[in-house]
# Entry
Amino acid sequence: MLKGTEVLTTAQMRAIESAAMASGQVTGLDLMERAGRAVADQIRLRWPKAGRATVLCGPGNNGGDGYVVARLLHRAGWQVRVLGMDNTPGPDAAEMKRQWQMIGGIAPLTERELRNGPESDACVDAIFGTGLTRAPEGEIAAILAHLGGSGGRDHRPCVVSVDCPSGMCMDSGAMLGQPRTGGGFAPHARLTVAFDSPKPGHLIGLGPVLCGALVVADIGLQSWRERTLDGPGQRPVRLQAIWPGFDIPDQRFRSPTATLGKHSVSGSHKYSHGHALVLAGGPAKGGAARLSARAALRIGAGLVTVGPSREALHEHSGPPDALMRLAIDDAGGLCDLLADKRINAVCIGPGCGIGRAADLLADLLRARRATVLDADVLTALSRNADLMAGLHGDCVLTPHMGEFARLFPDLAERLEETPTQGPAWSKLDAAREAAARCGAVVLLKGPDTVIAHPDGRARIHSAFDVPWLATAGAGDVLAGMITGLLARGLTPLDAASLGTLIHARAARLFGPGLIADDLPDIVPQVLRALQKFQSSSSVATALPMT
Ligand SMILES: NC(=O)C1=CN([C@@H]2O[C@H](COP(=O)(O)OP(=O)(O)OC[C@H]3O[C@@H](n4cnc5c(N)ncnc54)[C@H](OP(=O)(O)O)[C@@H]3O)[C@@H](O)[C@H]2O)[C@@H](O)CC1
Ligand SMILES: Nc1ncnc2c1ncn2[C@@H]1O[C@H](COP(=O)(O)OP(=O)(O)O)[C@@H](O)[C@H]1O
Ligand SMILES: [K+]
# Structure
């Protein structure tokens, strides 16, 4: 994978910082100075004219970063007011506090001080970072509520958060002590400057909404990151973000003469791009399967066949003409068809009907094809433990939250609980646990999509900027895209990741007003853009991750 896609847990981040400091080549003070400088620089980029800042410093090292920001903004000509706690922090933060005190005073960190102080252009939130262990209470909870607009929308300060909006668990994107769905007052940052790598909480749960624009600043830890996470005897980096820098796992997107598996693309034919089968349902239910089939064709499967029941076959006679149609009446018919080994990927669920999906699934799973399971078949699966036991490593399950709750009710319930302690149970944990239990890749949909492999690898795709993707049939298109990529020979994890990326990019390109039918036909445009991006991947690695 290209650099720049790793997502670190807070525990991994702490381990990397400790390794760096233990090496003797860098001190905690150096790191804190770099972190504070990164935040101050980002503020100055956005406000080129020196203004007024209020800096809120908490009891630990996040507060230490805040004292650095205060000093550097003061040096740049800003009028800086600091609110801090009357405690003795660790030695690095204590030193940064001392340096600030040589410049200016520290008012008490109270909601009253904040509310009654002069207006400021930027309010720097350096109260809690990775050290948050429990839900904030009392005075600090009141300050955080004020940052979230409890004093009225017009009084909501322009917040710049250091590492994360304070009170947010960086492993889950949940606000400790508040409902998962939001609704409580929480700091809504205009900008969040995180260090070294994003954490899961920046990308899932409430994180993307609370963080505002996310900047990930390099504080010089890269070589320790590599040694700590990838060194001999260490666990590999197991979590990645699907965003610029993500390595497209299909050679075709790199160069026209590249190879795909064993087949040279230049000398290839349609069967070397795979044959996808989309199982459709009975009469009057064909739309969803046709959306999937069209998406599978557009994304590059060599052949696509749609397989409804015999009485529904005539409904599938419309375009695209490239699509093949074949009646599949029952499991026997499916087995006969799957005797053709060239059919290497199957999509089951969209518009299939729960009963028919249940009837076909056991034999389909026994045929051991790469299989996408979506919609109706997920409901069938949730009602039948034997079917669930038949899942295998070439399966991709694509539930939305409602379907996930039917399949894994205990995991979904845990996600509903109000988290009180960090690290809080997250959508990432739920998807990973589900994948481990069922032995298949689980793609848990939403604006934050999490894709988990049974071996613990996982990927996160954040698409909070395309709310219009939540439209009827969009999931059917995604299932078809993944099926097409499986037909092309991608692994289930890669097909799910690339399908998710292309799906959201198509929605972004189309813009508001999108209906699911529009998505497949935007795919060629997205593929062209991806091809260009990949052929200039050295540029891509240098792109700032904003
Ligand atoms: N390590 C490094 O070199 C670098 C670290 N960096 C920076 O350090 C940050 C991590 O620092 P950190 O570990 O000191 O944790 P931090 O987030 O400041 O909070 C800990 C304090 O809060 C307290 N506390 C927790 N929850 C609470 C609650 N609900 N209500 C009240 N108190 C609560 C907790 O108290 P305790 O739980 O012990 O009672 C403790 O006193 C990181 O995000 C980054 O910004 C950068 O400078 C780069 C180099
Ligand atoms: N708020 C949102 N922002 C961006 N994407 C979303 C949002 N909500 C859902 N999605 C995406 O839209 C698609 C909807 O799929 P699904 O719920 O299965 O719809 P359907 O069953 O109608 O096809 C999924 O890919 C999901 O990740
Ligand atoms: K913070």
